[in-house]
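Input chain follows. Return structure tokens only.
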Amino acid sequence: MNEAPGRREPADATTVKPPMRDALVGAAFQLFLERGYEETTVDDIVALAGVGRRSFFRYFPSKEDVVFPDHERCLADMTAFLGEDAGTQDPVRRVCDAARLVLRMYAENPTFSVQRYRLTKKVPGLRAYELSVVWRYERALAEYLRGVSAGVRADTLRADVVAAAVVAAHNNALRSWLRSDGTGDAEVAVDKALGYVQRTFGATPAEPVREEAEGAVEADDAVRAEDVVVVVSRRGTPMWRVVREIESAFARD
């Protein structure tokens, strides 16, 4: 993450949320909801929060970053979590557990998460930004899997495939929960989705999903299956072209 203008943050800034940071996020989303994202400027945000521009850029390099204030912390937590494993746990189970850290970040504040989901759907630039964030999560999972595969060439491809499958399964269940306005048990839906990945690629079986929620999750799968979009592109394809293909697919819905 690039350093923002102004004073450098303390070493633990990714795990601590200063009140000013929260105030900036709250002010930004209040204005996004009232005026719209494109119509809101950084000057508007700092004016409502009662701080200066330097204070904003101490925490957020850009206006886009204030929409995703916790992803840097979550990515750091995920990387640390994966680094704690000495290879004694089934690697696929480990990356599934790492993906659950992202879910917990969303579930900490369902109202905020739903508001962000709705905003991101409306603003193409934010969708592109979100894709770049998702790619970084996927790379972290793949790097861990490559690290525990002892550098075998075949396992390198497998690491990329498994990481992509974990991210796709997690995001499919997460977005279903967000579309429901954050109602229901998000963990059950994600556990069910990740269970498919673990049973397909893992060395140990996935734990069963709680029975009382099974029917509700399956019903949601049936209703939302048509919302899944898969884009296949060659390695090295410019990100702008991939984003354009995804936006075109959603525009046809």
